[in-house]
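Example for tutorial group B:
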């Protein structure tokens, strides 16, 4: 039975995860030379011990049904592998735009994956408003002219990543309750699977000190602590409202990418911020 939503707590948890995810694209682009299976595996393994620490180092907290573990691997391994593939095989900004369909997916697919969760007109309006702001932020108002057949693999990977993360986020409410600390097991299994795929399918590569530093930062933050915060948010809040709040992620991501390139936000970014924040407020008003 689903617990009663705790809106304020869940939104704070979601916003904390979103803040961490804001740095994901910039750091991932800096590691484009690292094969995607290797990068996925190393980052997930770095973040896995956080779950063990949250459980008080009690391994019994990781005793979960096989179905739940399979869902965790589906989400963590599948999404991040496809995301890294997308960032390698398509222009990063456009790839980000496509994969940031996942907040829209959470809002619009909630009634499908969570029976008894109605979709109100206000949810749809907020989702479309937020997606419009996200598109404006990521493309800097240039539109989708860069989406060409040359980058088809990258865009399909990004689309797959969007579906995986939105469906995973919703399906965690359908399986038997599990503690957020069990996500450490999801990361451990997913990380080992990714490294096995690296050994079998990818060439060996030498990593420098800077690479290891970025991998550690990714594993502890966007591919580590963010998972536990996100899971706790979904367990205590309304998936539709959390999905709308998630439109803040591309705004943060784009801002960090601009800063990394020595650029300053322009009028387009300011306008997109207004749309995204407006969508977040609108979404929280929906019951």
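The residue assignment follows.
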């Amino acid at each position: 039975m689903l617990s009663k939503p705790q809106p304020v707590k869940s939104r704070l948890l979601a916003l904390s995860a979103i803040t961490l995810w804001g740095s994901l694209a910039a750091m991932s682009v800096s590691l484009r030379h690292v094969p995607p299976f290797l990068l996925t595996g190393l980052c997930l393994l770095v973040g896995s011990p956080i779950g063990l620490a949250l459980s008080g180092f009690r391994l019994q907290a990781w005793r979960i049904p096989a179905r739940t573990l399979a869902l965790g691997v589906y989400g963590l391994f599948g999404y991040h592998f496809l995301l890294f593939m997308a960032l390698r095989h398509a222009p990063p900004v456009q790839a980000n735009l496509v994969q940031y369909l996942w907040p829209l997916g959470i809002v619009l697919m909630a009634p499908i994956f969570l029976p008894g969760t109605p979709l109100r007109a206000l949810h749809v309006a907020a989702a479309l408003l937020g997606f419009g702001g996200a598109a404006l932020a990521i493309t800097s108002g240039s539109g989708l002219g860069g989406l060409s057949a040359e980058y088809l693999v990258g865009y399909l990977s990004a689309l797959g990543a969007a579906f995986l993360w939105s469906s995973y986020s919703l399906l965690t409410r359908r399986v038997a309750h599990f503690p957020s600390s069990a996500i450490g097991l999801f990361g451990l299994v997913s990380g080992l699977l990714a490294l096995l795929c690296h050994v079998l399918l990818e060439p060996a590569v030498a990593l420098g000190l800077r690479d290891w530093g970025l991998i550690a930062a990714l594993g502890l933050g966007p591919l580590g602590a963010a998972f536990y915060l996100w899971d706790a948010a979904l367990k205590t809040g309304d998936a539709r409202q959390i999905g709308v709040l998630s439109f803040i992620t591309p705004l943060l991501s784009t801002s960090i990418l601009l800063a990394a390139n020595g650029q300053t936000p322009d009028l387009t970014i300011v306008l997109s911020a207004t749309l995204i924040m407006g969508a977040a407020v609108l979404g929280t008003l929906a019951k």
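DSSP finds 13 helices and no strands in the chain. Compare this with the pattern of hydrophobic and polar residues in the output above.
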